[in-house]
Specification:
homodimer, alpha/beta, ten-stranded mixed beta sheet, 18 helices
């Protein structure tokens, strides 16, 4: 009971390899929060993921820039159902509208067990937070993995102030009913156990309020939910990136080398880039279809353009992801067959240096998720790019609220519009590229993780 | 320009066969509106569907109980894209949440042409209405086929009062964005060209208001939308069935014969019935899965229960429907293979007499659509049933708002809950069956088409 601030998230800011050596965590949340903690004394509680983590579970003092880290050792037979099945297959799917509703989901007994495991892992987090939090501490619970922590924690520690930040989109009330009713209710009651529920944009906040009304019959606006005489604040806190961290990382010898290699490969061709995890919500398929359509409509471009799709492997324990990745690879092969091997390069690997290097070099960055809570690629790219690159951005990405006016917006389901947007981006006169890139940089640099954190702490006071 | 009331719908109240003989129209809307027009002087405008219709397109006086019918001859090359592609594949899918969003929809040029055809057919309707409507007439435009009629009609005839009734669910604003932005806007502007937009339930009205805010930035509550200084009323008008018509139809010799045949086949077994079109929204697959699970958990039932699934063929021009129907047939075959040929009978045919006969005989009626504007099977069944049959009803059917408390409610995505609900229904003591059936009958008979029509006319005055 010593930490004035406790952050809890599934994945921690560092992970340890088998030799006990620390590595940075991956995923959008980790870099964001890591920056945010730089100026606050805090304890971060996360699940032990790697065998190296599990060997070091327990307290690790001063592990990340002044923040202590405690990794929770969760039995694999509990972690798997909680993480792969319930969080990433059910909750992620429902909040990104990824189901094929006439056929999926079909819940079976393994799902019931996964929900029990989800609850149990959330309880482990609640108990660990209760142990670490100082009297009257502030607790920031992160994301859809830990939705039912708040009431558990409140029962153990009524003295602490609880914020929950939901990083992904929030489904509308009708679609949320794809969850079994009891889970739906427990999820909403879980989040509303907090004092403050934070979301990335007004749009997701509005959906959250609609779900509070629909599922619980609560009285809810986009600003607050009133239920059982408790008032829960709803706040919009768009998460951003730390430009200084990014610049520092991009200045490393690794990135410089990767940049040189990419430049040699690229030559004087125009680079259309995408950077994503191999994730059903990222809409790689329609992005590739739009590029194929562009080549077909504009034979003049085929010689002087190349599309680099850098895809980080993601969630290969989930069958839907393996199938989707195979579909992306097959479509890329078809495009290469139609238009030659030089028009497209799809790489499935986790090469952070190459990604940062590619950011500096793109002429067009395509970010077209079907739905996305925020999307940090749309911020990182413009911060690092040195070519006045144009951003083609889905209107369903949270980032669109701030970056949309400087980007070329697309409806991610509309391949024809996406094709036209890439063509517009490629053809844009230098002066307009420059002007848009300047506005993009400014908007993309605007919301640092530190400000994101401060705004939540202020709202919780 | 003679009709004080004009009704416009894609499908008319009658259709003509090749010999010019009239037949009743099918679909839920037609019987509902046919009853409603019995006491009002009106002209009904609809598309000519059959070759017989097309031969008789033009004015048919006194065709249906005092209402004149005018069938519009729409060129097949326009009707196909309008009806099969745009209305039934795009609009139906989006409002019932039927897409597999990571992959579909992908719009292509044929879809753009279909949207043009949709607009063009809507214009034909608007022009025909403008010709028929008397000065200051009331016009009731029906359903998702004719969403953009209102502003076209208003431009031609500013003197008429326009109601639009939307028979199907209304998608939430995020899901509505699966439409290309321009269609989304045109659709919402189309509906808001009316003076009154009617929906089946408060839930769909709330979604419609949310879409008006999200798509058009309108100021909207569940009662009205204000935009460009015009106020459009939103009304909730649950559609019902005419118990007298149903009783009359059920008393016919055809139905009596069908009833005797079904009784002989049924013997003393318990009848679990479903009646649906072969429609992706009807959730036949999960209904069959629930029945399979019931047989597996309750071997005692296999000998004394039978599931009759009466499926009317629907939209076999749409590939998704053929695939879905095949999946249903394959699943039924698997169940018969596992539990014997006597536990299940899946029939794909359009036998109205057999359907009415089955209504009188069921012990359990399963109505579990993933989403459904109202669902008239849930009303027709209880009105005709003579065995105190129990209704298992999806909470996502509009009918649930009025019938839910007397039915056994299910989340249609939750197969385990559906299994349990059918088991509960089968096991229900006679006294509770009787009491529930009585309340069901009362609720199911409550909303006649006449009252539905009157309420809209009153709201338009």
């Amino acid at each position: 009971m010593t930490a004035a601030l406790v952050v809890a998230s599934n994945r921690g800011p560092i992970t340890f390899d088998e030799d006990g050596m620390p590595r940075r965590g991956s995923g959008g949340l980790v870099p964001a929060l890591r920056g945010a903690l730089a100026h606050t004394k805090a304890t971060w509680i996360a699940a032990a993921i790697s065998p190296g983590d599990r060997a070091r579970s327990g307290m690790v003092a001063d592990a990340v820039e002044g923040a202590s880290v405690r990794l929770l050792d969760i039995p694999p037979e509990e972690f798997g159902p909680y993480y792969n099945r319930l969080a990433n297959r059910v909750l992620w799917f429902v909040h990104h509208y990824l189901f094929d509703a006439p056929r999926t989901p079909v819940y079976d007994q393994a799902d019931d067990e996964a929900w029990d495991a989800y609850r149990s892992v959330n309880r482990r987090f609640a108990e660990a937070i209760a142990e670490e939090a100082a009297e009257g501490a502030t607790v920031l619970v992160q994301d859809y993995h830990l939705a039912v922590v708040p009431p558990m924690l409140r029962a153990l520690r009524p003295d602490v102030a609880i914020g929950h930040f939901w990083h992904i989109p929030f489904a509308g009330p009708d679609y949320l009913r794809l969850l079994p009713d009891s889970w739906n209710r427990e999820l909403m009651e879980g989040l509303l156990g907090a004092d403050l529920v934070g979301l990335q944009t007004k749009r997701w906040a509005s959906a959250f309020a609609a779900c509070a009304r629909s599922t619980l019959g609560a009285s809810a606006s986009e600003r607050r939910v009133v239920r059982d005489e408790r008032t829960v604040k709803i706040g919009v806190f768009p998460i951003g990136v730390n430009p200084d961290d990014l610049a520092e990382a991009a200045a490393s010898p690794d990135v410089r080398a990767a940049r040189e290699a990419l430049k040699r490969w690229l030559g004087d061709r125009t680079l259309v880039l995408r950077v994503d995890r191999t994730e059903l919500s990222k809409n790689v398929l329609r992005g590739l279809l739009a590029y194929e359509e562009l080549l077909s409509r504009r034979p003049d471009l085929a010689e002087r353009i190349v599309h680099l799709a850098l895809l980080q492997p993601s969630r290969h324990d989930v069958p839907e992801y393996r199938v989707y990745t195979e579909e992306c690879v097959a479509l890329a092969a078809r495009i290469e067959e139609r238009f030659g091997p030089d028009v497209l390069r799809l790489e499935i690997s986790d090469d952070y240096a190459r990604t940062l290097a590619a950011y500096t070099l793109y002429d067009v960055l395509v970010v077209n998720p079907v739905f996305d809570g925020m999307n940090l690629v749309a911020r990182e790219g413009p911060v690092l790019n040195r070519r006045d690159g144009v951003l083609v951005l889905s209107r369903n990405a949270g980032a669109f609220e701030e970056l949309g006016s400087a980007a070329i917006g697309v409806n991610p389901f509309d391949v024809a519009e996406t094709t036209a947007a890439i063509a517009t981006a490629v053809d844009l006169p230098a002066s307009e590229r420059k002007e848009r890139a300047k506005r993009l940089r400014r908007a993309a640099r605007g919301k640092t993780p530190g400000r994101w954190l401060d705004a939540q702490l202020k709202a919780l006071r």
